[in-house]
Amino acid sequence: MRTPIKTHCAAFAVLAFAAVTSHAAETLSVVTFGGAFEAAAKKAWFDPFTQATGATFATESYDGGLAKLSAMEQAKNTTWDLIDLETNDAITACDEGLLKKFDKKTLGKTSDFIPGSISECAVASMVWSTIYAYDASKLKVAPSTVNDFFDLQKFPGKRGLRKSPKVTMEWALIADGVDPKDVYKVLATPAGVDRAFRKLDTIKKNIVWWESGAQAPQLLADGAVVMVQAYNGRIDDAAKKDKKPFKAVWDAQVYDFEWWAVPAGAKHADTAAKFIVSASQPKASADLSKYIAYAPPRKDAIPFVDKQRLADMPTAPENFKRAVQINANFWADNADAINKRFQVWLTQ
Amino acid sequence: MPASIHATPPGAQASDEGLASYRSVQRRASMRALLLALPLIVFLLSTFIAPIALLLARSVQNQEVADGMPQLARALNAWDGNGIPGETTFAQLAAGLRQARESGQLGTIARRLNFAQPEFRSLLMRTARAVNDDAPPAWKPALIEIDERWGTPETWRLLKRAATSPTPDYLLAGLDAQVTPQGAIASLPENASVYRAAFVRTISISATVTLLCLVLGYPVAWLLANLPDKQSNRLMLFVIVPFWTSLLVRTTAWYVLLQPGGVINSLLSSLGLTTHPVALIFNRTGVLIGMTHVLLPYMILAIYSVMKSVPPVYMRAAKSLGAHPFTAFVRVYMPQTFPGVGAGCFLVFVLALGYYITPSLLGGAGDEMISQLIAMQTNTQLNWGLAGALSAYLVIFTAVFYFIFNRVVGIDRLRFG
């Protein structure tokens, strides 16, 4: 479980400390998805930046979405300087003028960035993925494909899924025989949406829904589910740090970039932009993977990543065979409509 | 005392003066009371009433298009709405898109229109990117060339609806209804209807929780009110401590207890009562257990406070006149506790209506309460108009229930201890 109170206290302590020790150094207020990612970002990026520039960080965690940022900008009192965004939020926020434009030139050489990982307002910080995981100590036969997730005969028991049509709809279609390359083409048609729901119907009674990312490994640990959809970093974290016998299934992984951006009304915008540049350098970009299994968004960073560690990454060739990149534009256009059908379907 | 003033005959005038001074004293006293309460009133106005009013106002506001593309909005409002508008409106659309793009409002407008129809967002974005070049001889064919949807009446109808403020659209959407192209109000098809069912579900869960609290709480309140003080105070601790404990902590505790591999299921299977884990969580059972536990103290305290003030003499009298203890209890004692029962039910029901954390942690897919849907519209869909409309219905429903309660029981009966 996440502990926002603790985070706030920590943030307050940092603020108070900064106020006492120095007036000159700035404190960047940074908001991330928290948990293991925040801890990793602190070691890989925040601490080195503090050493180099003296600027400190006050961290806060959120569950994504633009409601708070939007409200701050409307009230013209933005208290965040740096924000960690999902792709669809990064696109929407940029379109709505909630973010500062980012000057690409400050990044230096960018030719080795994965295509699409630098946008008008934001720079990708890492590649993460939605996979499903199982408890190897409880399943005798290891599931290996997304079809196994939907196969109640071979693998009886509950499944954990995020309470959102995103990724779940994609998986349902792939498990129903759609080629991962064509999944958004099919999902764009009403017949495709029906088809996805029909496939989901087959396991509906066995689904346990989760909402916050930290719940996923917890459900698996509690034995509430036999397989759970999760963010790969969380599962890797539970397996490596907490020594849980969790295994990830990479078939039909749905990967996405995570983004750094500066809110339009940020009070320490220049320092925040400098931080983004420093965290995007090849070495720094690779450093994150030491602490959490998320991959750097640029090729020049790969030589800095530990060889063994590379196998836990979404971008490892072995894991990347049937990978799908989430189509943020599709979801920006269709989330309202599909979400509504999803809500109706949930309660039917 | 006016009566004594009237009693003195020569004092018609004196009585008037007395009355006037009495009134001015009264006025000064009430002014002083008002001044003392002023900080609280200002505080409530600025932190509670104003924000709520602003949120509720969003349910009819529709300013996105009017703010970002004012000329287009005026042209659309002047247009009769039949078929497709003329060249001037198309030209204004092109100018408006460019203007909104420059001022950074295009995204907001696109999001607003995407509520009306999927892919309206990308239609606007794509068109806005394309109109940045030199002006063509005629905008109408040029825009239809960019995307043929500009040639369909439905696109323009939705754009006109989005340019009109205030709008009933969000309030209708909150009841799963919409305005059809013919101008009539019609229900949405079944596979797009969410909210009416959610309101019914919210009320039924709240009513069930209220009933459970009453059944469980009444005997406990009776025990507390009738035990000797020392024991009763000790017992009271078991009611008060959970009452003081954070809602989140209690819900999370149930989350741990009710798991398939949790304490309750382990106990049941070790006693040999069950072979498979009983489904206690992620379904209605979990929601009812969690909510009943969280809300039970309100019911107990409300009933207890009334029971404490029921004099024991009536029961003794009833029994001494030959009534069976059970009859005496049902016909003499219980009616005297009804105000407490009413107050407890009112409190529990109204609090349950707005529940959010407990059903979202302990409930399954079929247990979403209206607050969860409001939160989703606010936080992830950013459809604050719809969130405002749903909140308005919730406020109205609570107010109606309050009114009924006040009529039947009287709000002044609401007290603790």
Could you give a quick summary of the protein structure above?
Chain A has 348 residues and is α/β, with parallel strands linked by helices.
Helix residue percentage of chain A: 40-55%
Question: CATH first level of the largest domain in chain B: which class?
Answer: Mainly Alpha
Whole-number radius of gyration of chain B? Answer: 31 Å
Category from helices, strands and their pairing of chain A:
alpha/beta
| Sequence of secondary-structure elements of chain B | HHHHHHHHHHEEHHHHHHHHHH
- How many helices of chain A? The count is 14
Number of domain units of chain B: 3
Low-pLDDT residue intervals, each spanning 5 or more residues of chain A = 1-7, 9-23
How many domains of chain A? The number is: 2
CATH superfamily of the largest domain in chain A: Periplasmic binding protein-like II
Largest sheet report of chain A: 9 strands, mixed
CATH architecture annotation of the largest domain in chain A: 3-Layer(aba) Sandwich
Low-confidence stretches of chain B: 1-8
* Helix coverage percent of chain B: over 70%
Question: Biggest sheet of chain B, in brief?
Answer: 2 strands, antiparallel
In CATH terms, the superfamily of the largest domain in chain B is MetI-like
Show the helix and strand layout.
The complex is a heterodimer of chains A (348) and B (417).
Chain A: H1 4-21, E1 27-32, H2 35-53, E2 56-61, H3 67-74, E3 82-86, H4 87-95, E4 122-135, H5 146-149, E5 159-162, H6 168-175, H7 183-187, H8 190-201, E6 207-210, H9 215-222, E7 227-231, H10 232-240, E8 246-261, H11 269-280, H12 282-291, H13 307-310, E9 324-325, H14 328-347
Parallel strand pairs in A: 1-2, 1-3, 5-6, 5-7, 8-9
Antiparallel strand pairs in A: 3-8, 4-7, 4-8
Chain B: H1 2-7, H2 12-57, H3 64-68, H4 70-78, H5 87-103, H6 106-116, H7 120-130, H8 139-146, H9 153-162, H10 169-173, E1 177-179, E2 185-187, H11 195-226, H12 229-244, H13 247-257, H14 263-270, H15 284-308, H16 313-320, H17 325-353, H18 357-362, H19 370-379, H20 384-408
Antiparallel strand pairs in B: 1-2
Helix pairs in contact in B: 4-5, 5-7, 6-7, 11-12, 11-15, 11-17, 12-15, 13-15, 15-17, 16-17, 17-20, 19-20
